[in-house]
Amino acid sequence: MRALVVDHTAPAHLALAEVPDPVPNPGESLVRVSAVSLNYGEVKGATDPQVPAGTVVGWDAVGEVVRAAADGTGPAVGAKVVTVGEQGWAELRAVRTARLGIVPDGADLGAVSTIPVAALTALHVLRRMGQVLGKRVLITGASGGVGRYAVQLAARAGAEVVAISRNPAHADELRSLGAHEVRTDPASVDRPVYGVLDNVGGRQMVDAFAAVQAEGVLISVGRSAEAEAVFPAEAFTPTDGRHDRAIRTFFLFGDPTTDFSADLTWLATQVALGSLDPGISWRGSWTRYDEASSALLEARLHGKAVLELD
């Protein structure tokens, strides 16, 4: 089969190549992939010289089951599914049935391919915040993949959403997705927030934490700024009564036993219904992977990039 593999001699550190077909374990379905979406982490990771050449990368993929799991779990042959895992940018993917969801008939498969990492991360981070109904939630990197889904899901949960995007041109779109307030810098937020979903790190993370109220939480999910977050000493010795504030980290694959199937199915349904907007800003053949990955790494792409297999 063909797959996108790491190639450190290529400008995008990726290349299309022939690789062996995957052999599913008993608890895995074999899926013929029709579309994939890109995330900053995997594209950036491919540029790491320590990643061996020839490694198949990619977390998000959507397609059709061509061989059901031998242990009887998961959907039958012919089912359209959205999947999350590793080695997904290939014509065939072997994926655990706990990491695939059912896609409704007639859904735009390219749009659904944007769900796995971005929407699952947003959903699970918001759940970790607890009840957000009526509370202020701040989201940095709000115009990115995770950020867009987080704005929409937080608004649906009844939160007062404060969206941070460096580009003021995205303000109207973010408001249309449910943001109550849009700012270019968390340092300008003038009222405390209960929770923060931080996609950026660096100075934005420091300024976002400064806005957190007593017993609130900041959850760090990304470091797109590629800079250290240097906190002043007073950030942890407040004199204004804001105590018990927490900073937590999040990694979607932290618990390998997590079953994502129900969440993936629900999210796929919401995208198919038009209740969640995936925010696709680049879409094309997977033979144009270099264009999409370069746009993502150079911060010229906001939202999601989708590659369609042909």
From TrEMBL:
Q: Which InterPro entries match?
A: ADH-like_C, ADH-like_N, ER, GroES-like_sf, NAD(P)-bd_dom_sf
- What Gene3D superfamilies does the annotation carry? Medium-chain alcohol dehydrogenases, catalytic domain, NAD(P)-binding Rossmann-like Domain
Q: Which Pfam families match?
A: ADH_N (PF08240), ADH_zinc_N (PF00107)
* UniProt organism field: Nocardia callitridis
Q: What sequence ranges are listed for the domain Enoyl reductase (ER)?
A: 9-307
Q: Please state what the protein is called.
A: Zinc-binding dehydrogenase
Please name the SUPFAM superfamilies in this protein's record.
GroES-like, NAD(P)-binding Rossmann-fold domains
Q: What does the UniProt keyword field contain? A: NADP, Oxidoreductase
CDD domains the UniProt entry points to: MDR4
